[in-house]
């Protein structure tokens, strides 16, 4: 498969890229800073996903090099922990630019290449968070941007099904990455206490569900966001 994963320099995106390279797939990744991976089968684009022209340029290069895509994983995201009254509008807009508008733009450009997948059916996977169903205080803008992505997932699953493209989401509980490094330990512990499975989510817990949701094994699943760890 040819898989585009956004935000592959660190964290979840890097772990996913390494996993799919280990499986023998071709992986295209991107981030603002240069690649942290240098492996056969891996191509990196140094771009800011909030720059729509740069996003279009990346998809143009993918089309030139591969002609199609089999899967798009919209992983890159950012958060901000703050009471909404202490969150300036510029901060809120910046979060939406990456977490929502960049996903929308990647889906629009990606769909043109995903519909050419020789696999017959291709997939988009959008990364979300337990901050949405739990409506976590201090995460209003972050969770609102991801709630918008979950709605995008539902609507787009209908709009793209005629093109043979499935659209699903994966809702993550806390995972140890740069994004969560600044959270107070007590806060992470209290979130884990709310999960049905009371331990920290690891990269190994994530790769299986991602593999399932972008492969033909979930060929009749679309419009769903699957939450890990048991969040109800
Ligand atoms: N970690 C958690 O506990 C957790 C929980 C729930 C959901 N999530 C979600 O999981 C996803 C991955 O999070 P993570 O924890 O792995 O985060 P991370 O370690 O901070 O990684 C984010 C990646 O995105 C890239 N990136 C950030 N802004 C970008 C931009 N404007 N343009 C291009 N690339 C950009 C970063 O590279 P550069 O800095 O080089 O651009 C980095 O590679 C996010 O959508 C997040 O909301 C994470």
TrEMBL record:
Gene3D superfamilies: NAD(P)-binding Rossmann-like Domain. The keyword Nucleus does not apply. Keywords: Oxidoreductase. Pfam families: adh_short_C2. The keyword Nucleotide-binding does not apply. PANTHER family: 3-OXOACYL-[ACYL-CARRIER-PROTEIN] REDUCTASE FABG, SHORT-CHAIN DEHYDROGENASES/REDUCTASES FAMILY MEMBER. Belongs to the short-chain dehydrogenases/reductases (SDR) family. This is SDR family oxidoreductase. It comes from Streptomyces achromogenes.
